[in-house]
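Records of this kind hold a single protein each, on a pair of labelled lines. With that in mind, the following record should read easily:
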Amino acid sequence: MAGSISAPPEHVAFGSSFAYPADGSVVTTGAMTASASTDVGSTAVASASSEVQSLIVFGGEVIASAVNGDARGATRATRASGDFSGAGVAGLTVLGQPVAVAPNARTALADWGYLISLEQGTDTSAGAGGAQGYHGFVTALAIHLTAPHGGLPAGSVIEVGYAEASVQASAEPPPPVVPGPTKKPKAPTTPNAPKELGHAQSPLLGVPTGLQPKLTAGGYVFPVYGPASYSNTYGAFRGDVAGNWHHGDDIFAPLGAPILACADGVVFSVGWNDVGGNRLWLRDSQGNEFYYAHLSAFTPLAKNGYRVKAGEVVGFVGNTGDAEGTPPHLHFEVHPFSLLFMGYDGAVDPTTYLDAWRRLRDVRFMPNVAGWAGIVTNPAPRPAAILLQVSDISEASGLDPGSLRRAMAAGGIRGAEGQLLRSLGFRPPRNAGSGAP
């Protein structure tokens, strides 16, 4: 097992690679990410995800470019349900042949075993008062050996991309006891008198569901650079904060990971509040608006009225505001132009958009390296990211392959900062003149 996490409390974990045994003759992978989160309240939500890049099994007999396990569960009133819509396997090749991926699909592995893609199962049961419970699991890839192979005995199972979620709905409370009517003297009435309005003239707006307006500005990119993990927590109960429900998704990433402009547009409302911490808004050319919160720090591009291009670095992942004490993440919201009349409650589920937007991975950005020192002022806490020079990474673009690495190496990174980077494995390009070995 490469590792496992669970919630509560919320957890997120990152790994650069994995090999078993040490020579990788059985399994080798690229970067790995896992997250687990729960929300408990009148509406309960549980989600778990695992992502593995560049999977190679038995020296190439099974290959996949990406493996994703994703399980979600939620309750509404006394009902419970879940899904595995985020699970998938990309670029699956078995014994040199491409293989289609489908839930519980089985593929023979010569005479030594078989492979199951998106192996999954669910259990929904009713408890006290008719309240449902839901438990679901998914294994993106499961390789079962029926005969010895690759140094492993028969009966061995290799599982990649496992996730499970469990939720339990609450029973409906008994109906309140209504006292019998009491007689009161009737007050005199005046014909056609206007009705008095109560203090609560309208209820709080509910969570908008099923709304996915098309965003027409084009050129959108994923808002976090490098390894990141997210699941659909839109609409989850949030106590007395932000209208009682979660207006976006949390994208977990290493502290200090670059945050990118998701579209060409104008930055506005840059600053601090107690809930979002360091936060900003971005408006694209069609009027759609995007909210970024809990940044550890900003870059000089994060100024009111500045025009930015999709992929430019506007800040860095953190946990400021009411996210203090949680794993570093970006809280991200989508506010389509057509729903801005609803105010803050015009936010829609961002998961579908995030799934579709291009993720920029020209280099792997190392945890705890990058950030911005001088731009953060009180009352924001000092960012925990390790901070570099003032004119470096903020001028790079995630759309330009290699630009982040060149920006970090420009002019040479020496002294304590250079020693830190080298200790973490960073090697600037040979033509950068950085003086690194």
